[in-house]
Design goal:
The chain has 469 residues and is α/β, with parallel strands linked by helices. 38% of the residues lie in helices and 14% in strands. The chain contains 17 helices and 13 strands. Strands 5-4-3-2-1-11-10-7 form an eight-stranded parallel beta sheet. The structure holds D-gluconic acid. The site of D-gluconic acid has 11 residues, from loops.
Length: 469
């Protein structure tokens, strides 16, 4: 079973749900620019309105309360708070976020605030973005403004969400804003500056906090899952999970380059060798800055791939069987990733873990009875959270689970196509309808997981026919 004080929550990000208002004083972010015109990269869609959460948060937090949700991982928008990315603070944004946080707390919801979930200020992109060495100071300044204005109300902070994604998708493959395909040299510089910015923000959050706070980081990756429980397959998967590749288009899609420096204080030796011709200067001071003590680590985990020990002793991929389950944006459903992802990360880094994101996109619609039936999502969550419990039962220090996500929203390059919410949003009327999975999750929270199938294996037994006749 999960610990008694296990944190049950939902996660979101500002850009995906907030929307805009002509009076909001918010600056432009790279996603606004990316979605202008024909917005080819986002199915012609943008986030100007999205869920209109900025005008409806009272209603949204009341619904969260009704659904028994106790914690909320959300992000604040850098260019909403600092329209130019630095300098003048937009007091309208401070007022809005303070009111939002107070409203959460009034509804018994503990805030977990993420500083950066990909809303990069366009004004900073225009002066070199993450390749500009000053970006570390700018991000530190932003962290100071956040600490000064919100840390009396918020105790838990995350610095950066999924560096793998926004470095890789935004600057290597170019499918996310600002849609650039930069050279390897530039993207390794970006990654290094991102890690330094994380360190700087951690220092600034603590320095300017108005009460003792806890700080973490929220990286991601696809998990290497052992094909069987044999020691050899487990070792092969562990090796692959932390390994690096120079051949893949997207070098940034890995665990160790983004987590070892932050959590262990050094870049993986394999990468220093493999990538040596692309690396910027990395000093001892840089590494000290990056390696700030953290209170916990976040893990955003959705899926994986199978690995076995090959005949020659080297790890080998195991293809998926035809007809495997997948979500509506084509990601495989494989609950073992939550067990192995947590186990491997905990063994290597040893910090308490929050699952900062996990959830499923489905082809949801309002049924003829007016409800949204999403049995695939409930089954997904039951399997995944049960796998997480297994890791907890085996002694991994798991503090909480933030389901991605509360409201269907703007799913980046998928536009409004990927519905990840446990609450259905009609994007024409903006009406919210909790899906069946939301009521199921309410029971999970109320029972601290006692209703999960891992604790009720009997529920899965085939009913005895004679009882029904
Ligand atoms: C990510 C982001 C979220 C996504 C979610 C589903 O992981 O890409 O953190 O913003 O919406 O993961 O793709």
């Amino acid at each position: 079973m999960f610990r008694d004080d296990f944190v049950w929550g939902v996660a979101s990000s500002s850009y995906q749900i907030e929307g805009t208002d002509p009076k909001d004083g918010r600056g432009i972010c790279v996603w606004d620019t990316f979605t202008e015109g024909d917005a080819a990269g986002t199915r012609g869609q943008n986030a100007q309105v999205t869920c209109d959460h900025m005008h409806r948060y009272k209603e949204d937090f009341a619904l969260m309360k009704e659904l028994g949700i106790k914690a909320y991982r959300f992000s604040v928008s850098w260019p909403r708070i600092l329209p130019q990315g630095r300098g003048e603070v937009n007091m309208e944004a401070i007022r809005m976020y303070r009111d939002m946080i107070c409203e959460m707390k009034k509804n018994g919801i503990t805030p977990y605030l993420t500083l950066f979930h990909w809303e990069f200020p366009q004004a900073l992109e225009d002066i070199g973005g993450w390749t500009n060495p000053d970006i570390v100071e700018y991000f530190g300044e932003y962290a100071r403004v956040v600490a000064e204005n919100f840390s009396d109300l918020v105790e838990y902070f995350f610095t950066i969400n999924e560096p793998q994604c926004f470095v890789g998708l935004a600057y290597v493959t170019g499918v996310h804003a600002p849609g650039k395909k930069l050279s390897k040299k530039e993207t390794f510089l970006i990654a290094h500056n991102v890690l330094k910015a994380h360190g700087k923000a951690t220092i600034m959050l603590r320095k300017y906090a108005k009460q003792p706070i806890q700080v973490g980081y929220a990286p991601t990756c696809t998990v290497a899952i052992p094909a069987t429980n044999s020691e050899a397959d487990i070792e092969a998967a562990r090796k692959v999970y932390f390994s690096l590749s120079d051949t893949a288009d997207n070098w940034a899609w890995n665990v160790s380059w983004f987590s070892d420096p932050v959590l262990l204080g050094e870049y993986p030796a394999e990468g220093l060798e493999l990538f040596k011709e692309y690396l910027p200067e990395i000093t001892k001071e840089d590494m000290e800055l990056i390696h700030q003590p953290l209170d916990f680590m976040g893990q955003n985990i959705y899926n994986g791939y199978y690995i076995k020990a090959g005949a020659n002793g080297e790890p080998e991929g195991v293809p998926m069987k035809d007809g495997y389950a997948e979500n509506s944006v084509g990601w495989p459903v494989m609950e073992e990733c939550l067990y192995w992802g947590v186990k491997f990360a905990y063994e290597r880094y040893g910090l308490p873990i929050f699952i900062t994101e996990n959830g499923m996109a489905c082809h949801d619609r309002v049924a003829v009875d007016g409800k949204v039936h999403d049995p695939n999502r409930t089954d997904f969550l039951d399997r995944y959270i049960s796998a997480l419990q297994q890791a907890a039962d085996e002694g991994m220090d798991i503090r909480g689970y933030f389901l991605w996500t509360f409201l269907d929203n703007f799913e980046w390059d998928h536009g409004y196509h990927g519905r990840f919410g446990i609450v259905y949003v009609d994007f024409e009327t903006l009406e919210r309808t909790p899906k069946d999975s939301a009521y199921w999750y309410k029971e999970v929270i109320a029972s601290n997981g006692a209703n999960l199938h891992i604790n009720n294996r009997k529920l899965r037994e085939i009913p005895v026919l004679s009882k029904c006749l």
